[in-house]
Amino acid sequence: MRLQWKYSLVINLSVIAVLVAFYFFDSIRVRSEMNALHALGAERGAELKKITENTILNAIVKEIETTKVFDAGRLNQVLNELKREHPDMQDVLNVHVSLSNTRIRSSLLAGEDTVNINLDAAALEQIATKGATVDAVEGQNATAIVIKYAVPLSKPKSSGLESGDLAYEPTLDEGLLLPDVRWEVTGYIQVLFDVPYIDRSIRNSLLMHAILIVIVGALLVILIDLTTNHLIMKPLERMTGIIQSAESGDLSLDQTYSSDEIGKATHNLVRMLWQLRDSHSKRITALGQFAAGVAHEIRNPLNSIGMTAQHLKSVFSQRKVSPDDIEEAKELLEIVDKKIGELKQTSEQFLTLNRPRRLNIEPVNFNALVEQVLSEFALVTEEAKVQVIKNYDENLPDVPLDTALMRQTLFNFVQNSIQAMPKGGSIYITTLIEAIADEMDHAVIEIRDTGIGIPEEIQEQIYDAYFTTKDATGGIGLGLAISHQIITAHKGKIEVRSKMGMGTAFKISFPLDVDKRS
């Protein structure tokens, strides 16, 4: 999984988990508060209903029974005195009293805009069955309780009563007033109570909600910080420390690394630094060997030239130079010329190793070229007790090669095989056509011997210039280096397989399609 997706997934899952936990605990808290609020509301509603029935209703009924009339002004005074004097009236905000219907006739607060007590069919039915309605007032922290009152009167008092003020008016029977007829004054009482606990509950709920949001925000910050530190910052700090350690030369592969992308990148970085350091060490070693080889190749001719020059100086320092001395001087000068030629050849080889070779490509019968090279070793193989076993592909087409350079290359490989079998052995030479990975046909030659083999730890160095394992036999380590360069110049490939005591096999392949090689 890529780091950005892993990081996003961890962060998003953390955020979702925290938000779900927040919703879960907040819903539990809100549900608990609502249950407590409902319980408190039920308890408080019963208490307010009791105040309405025992205190306010009794005062209104008593006033109407005393005056035998519905006197709105007098009722207003009674309600205000009740508000001032009675302790149960502390939380009463207003009292509305209607007559016969829901139209308000008397109020605790005079001049209020409310005209009617809002009662629908359901409220009227609830009053009829339960005796009262208890409702919250929308937009206010108040509870409204509505009850019905009925005051029976035995005799009417004409003064102060208006038409329609009585719920029931006496009737005339045969023109006579029936003095025994009774009637009653009815209506509705609405009491508005202040409920400050609702406002407190809302404020406390909002405060708790804000506190929970702050806690959730802090948790998210901590989670994101920990995740960022664990997934990014600490691995990057570790990588930085490794780079600093590498700069100081202290580098170890024994450390443990996390399995995420940065851990893998850190491990790859350490491995690459190790490889670079190992490669650098090998290059320094190879450079030392190269310098030693160059010094060896130059030193011997220079020593010969120096000794020859000294001898020539002694010859021509004589007072009389004989014809024999002149002949000797000529021989010495020929030696000097030969050594100078060797120095020139060494310099040419040195320059060749550091510049691309120019090829003279032409179609070559590869089998015939191999046969020519082997013919040069006929006496050598016989003396070394080496048997050459050939297996040529007769259908092998002509291969585009530089004949001279390829002859030199094959010569080097065959010579190395013979030198690798000091006690005799066999050389197996095979040619064939093979389709390699790019599906292009290649001409392949395999040169395998039964010699001493090449140690695995130095197989990568055998193509380095002046690297040799034949110091005792006078090898200078340029044969395989030059051969490798020639093969590479032909766009060819070379593979080596070797085990100590079991011989070595070199597989060399050249593409047959000249156009694709160019």
Offer a concise description of the structure:
By secondary structure, this protein is an alpha+beta fold. The chain has helices at 3-67, 72-85, 121-130, 196-247, 261-316, 323-352, 366-375, 378-383, 403-419, 479-489, 514-517, and strands spanning 92-98, 104-107, 132-137, 142-153, 172-173, 176-177, 183-194, 362-364, 386-391, 399-401, 425-435, 441-449, 493-499, 503-511.
Helix content: 40-55%
Distance between the terminal alpha carbons, to the nearest Å? 42 Å
- The whole-number mean of residue pLDDT values reads 76
The run of helices and strands is HHEEHEEEEEHHHEHHEEHEEHEEH
Strand order of the largest sheet: 2-1-7-4-3
Q: Based on Cα principal axes, name the global outline.
A: rod-shaped
Question: What's the total number of strands?
Answer: 14
Number of helices: 11
Class by alpha and beta content = alpha+beta
Give the DSSP E fraction (strand runs of 2 or more residues).
15-25%
Give me the Rg, rounded.
59 Å
Quick one: biggest sheet? Answer: 5 strands, antiparallel
The unreliable regions are 157-181, 471-476
What does this structure look like?
With 518 residues, the chain is an alpha+beta fold. The protein has 11 helices and 14 strands. The longest helix has 65 residues, at 3-67.
Write the layout of secondary structure elements.
Elements (H helix, E strand, L loop, with lengths): L2 H65 L4 H14 L6 E7 L5 E4 L13 H10 L1 E6 L4 E12 L18 E2 L2 E2 L5 E12 L1 H52 L13 H56 L6 H30 L9 E3 L1 H10 L2 H6 L2 E6 L7 E3 L1 H17 L5 E11 L5 E9 L29 H11 L3 E7 L3 E9 L2 H4 L1
Parallel strand pairs: 9-11
Antiparallel strand pairs: 1-2, 1-7, 3-4, 4-7, 5-6, 8-10, 11-12, 12-14, 13-14
Helix pairs in contact: 1-2, 1-4, 4-5, 5-6, 7-9, 9-10
